[in-house]
Amino acid sequence: MTITEPGRGIRSVASTVKQADQAIVVATRSFEPQSSLNPWGPKVDRHEEVIEIGAEALTALREGRATIEIRAEGAGTLFRAAPVTVATEERPVLLRPPLLFDRTSTTFVAQGGAEAVVYDVGPTAARHGVRVGDRTFEGQRHDALGENGAFALFGVPHDVAGAEDIRLFAEDLASNRAEVPFVDQFKEKPFREDQITINDRIMKAVVPPILAATPKLEDKGSLLENYLQINGPLRRALNDRLVELGQESRKEFLWTQPFLQMNAQVVSAFADRRTYLYEGKVVDSQDHLGFDLAP
């Protein structure tokens, strides 16, 4: 909360939570107002404070609705009563995690693949979906799945170790969180290993155009060092940006038909473990996060 009183300053602030027939005083603050005999004297004309109101702070709270009331009093004068301002706001009281149930009978996932899950989530959930390690895949409610029905499309990254890292989750506005395991079988996938030999001719064809188009990249003064910063840090930065774009995109689906794979040969598959050689020495290793197609 933020309270301002540009006159003679703030005299007192009281914060109260009201629910049903009880009123719980959360915090009170008192200040020395400016003296009416000294208009240049000290005063507190602005007060900011964050007050935590939760089940641990207020054990008498019950689930439902509650009203937060802030009462601020300024300094009066001999001829004017003290100014009083009261601000109220009604908020839900959430003390338990949202309800969360897996509706999919069996779920099989493969390392480096993708899947979908259908579940029920309670109305108090503000966010829900699938957590895979430190990655989050937001779910969507859908009328066709019933009142509480939702589904989530999620990826299974190539570096996830097993089913224990994959959970349904639901979280409300008060950060109460539920997590439920739902994967019945996790299939580990051996990814192909590949060696790529690079030389000056290849790097001269690739590096200068990328450096010119990417002002944030610093010229290391070495063709090989520039290639390595493109192959490593720049790739990771681009992957992070793709995640950000996904979080900023519209929530609704903008397509109705399945995607079809191009009529092309896969020459490099997802999560290939690539080792890069230069003049016979290993200079880099990366996981290829895409498909290379050739007609």
What this model shows, in words?
The chain has helices spanning 200-213, 223-248, and strands at residues 2-4, 10-19, 22-30, 46-48, 64-74, 84-93, 100-102, 108-110, 114-121, 127-132, 135-138, 140-141, 149-155, 166-171, 177-180, 185-187, 193-198, 265-268, 272-278, 281-288, 292-294. The mean pLDDT is 91. It has 295 residues and is mainly beta. The N and C termini lie far apart (63 Å). It is built from two helices and 21 strands. It is flat, with a radius of gyration of 30 Å. A four-stranded antiparallel beta sheet has the order 3-2-5-6, with no helix packed on it. Strands 7-9-13-12 form a four-stranded antiparallel beta sheet, with no helix packed on it. The protein folds into three domains: 2-93, no CATH class; 100-187, Immunoglobulin-like (Sandwich), CATH 2.60.40; 193-248 and 263-294, no CATH class. The longest helix is centred in the C-terminal third of the chain and has 26 residues, at 223-248. Helices cover 14% and strands 41% of the residues.
What would the keywords be for this entry?
Immunoglobulin-like; 4-stranded antiparallel sheet; 41% strand; 3 domains; 295 residues; mainly beta
Describe this structure in a few short sentences.
The chain is mainly beta. The protein is built from two helices and 21 strands. The strands form seven sheets. It has a four-stranded antiparallel sheet, with no helix packed on it. A four-stranded antiparallel sheet has the order 7-9-13-12, with no helix packed on it. Strands 11-10-14-15 form a four-stranded antiparallel sheet, with no helix packed on it.
